[in-house]
Design goal:
This protein has about 170 residues and is mainly α. The chain folds into 2 domains: about 45-115, no CATH class; about 120-168. Helix content is about 80%, strand content about 0%. The protein contains 5 helices and no strands.
Length: about 170
């Protein structure tokens, strides 16, 4: 009886191990992630991209109406609210874009002005320093990413070990 129970438990563990094994899995690309997820982190929903505020308000109102079943008055009020919100958002987005462009121009101008104050040797040392900083940042980012992946895998391993302990 003990041998039968042991063989059943081992068979269950082996099946669980094979069920978790992934073979011939293609690496996920940005396009694949974008198509599988409704929202991109920090980006506007694809359905609202390049839409006018009126179109955005209509889409949002229609979606809400499907779930909430508005009266005619509610529908008009909600559309007006969504329209105001979409116009405000469009205005803020344009302001942010202008501000980013302005700041970039200022940084480039300040950098050029600073380089004009330095000798050619100092300019070379500064550019080499910038290159080294970029290289170190990239290496640090890669190492951090590898550690996060490893920690994520450890978390999965711990969960599977807990499950194995419960089954035996």
């Amino acid at each position: 009886m003990k041998k039968l129970m042991l063989s059943i438990a081992l068979s269950g563990l082996m099946l669980a191990g094979f069920a978790q094994e992934k073979k011939d899995v293609k690496p996920e690309t940005k396009e694949m992630r974008a198509s599988t997820h409704k929202h991109k982190a920090g980006r506007m929903h694809e359905g609202f991209k390049n839409k006018t505020p009126e179109e955005v308000a209509k889409i949002k109102t229609d979606r809400m109406d499907q779930k909430l079943k508005f009266t005619d008055k509610q529908r008009k009020d909600i559309y007006a609210f969504n329209l105001k919100q979409a116009k405000d958002h469009q205005k803020l987005a344009a302001e942010r874009k202008e501000h980013r462009a302005k700041m970039k121009k200022e940084r480039v101008a300040e950098h050029e002005k600073m380089l004009g104050l330095l000798t050619p040797e100092q300019q070379k040392v500064l550019k080499d320093s910038y290159a080294e900083n970029r290289k170190m940042h990239k290496e640090h980012w890669k190492k951090d990413r590898q550690m996060r992946k490893r920690d994520f895998r450890k978390g999965d391993a711990v969960k599977t070990n807990d499950a194995e302990v419960k089954t035996t």
